[in-house]
Amino acid sequence: MAGFKHLVIVKFKEDVVVEDILKGMQKLVSEMDAVKSFEWGQDIEGEEMLRQGFTHASLMTFEDKQGYTAFVGHPSC
Question: Which residues form the Stress-response A/B barrel domain (predicted)?
């Protein structure tokens, strides 16, 4: 799939409810036409990342860089 890709590796604070974050992201993604795909998962293989506290990753594909810019500029981000 062509487009502008955005990869995020995430480290959550202990009191964060990961499912709430995911629901919020899915809602935001569904409201923005520029987002073409959104993938989310738990990293269980990257030992170095796990040692540093990074436990999840997301990959988003946008129509173009302007779509990405609009997404990160959204008040909910």
Answer: 4-77
